[in-house]
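User: For my dataset I need records formatted as: sequence, then structure tokens, nothing else. Please produce one.
Assistant:
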Amino acid sequence: MRLLALLLLLATLAAAKEMWIAFGEREWTGGTRRLVVNKAGFRFFDGEMLIAEGQLPQLPFDVHVLASEPGAVLFEKYAAIGEGDTLVFLGADGNLRWRLTPDQVPGGAGDAVLRRLWWVDEARGKAVLVARSGALLDVDLKTGKATSAAKEVVLAALPRMRGWAFQEVLEIAVETQPEGLRD
């Protein structure tokens, strides 16, 4: 009986090794699209259909799955510590379209450690990063090029933010004093 139980356990472990689900799995959604990430890699779904799967250069801290087009923006908050990327655009085909490394962030690698927040403005086709220095950066979703953002992007983001993100964006608005902010 013990031998049978041991054989069943070994067979279960061997099958589990082939299974994709692993400890630490996270899932993000956008419209009908869903990105599931774990240490083994990623799986990208549109509805219930698997459209891509593969490996990532690093596990993301946060992800924004685009509702407007098949793709996802992966964010790593601590990219300036050691190696890694600040932002990565993952296309629906499973390929990385672009990678934004800390040294590509305007202001140098020190600014790449973001203070508190980032968000995606799909209508403008930009990701917005708030650097530790307080600088606002626009990252073009098509090219990955980072440029300085106008302070007004903070006010435009407020209506879409919820919970703690709303509080953070409001605090950034008070700090940056964009045109149109009332006392």
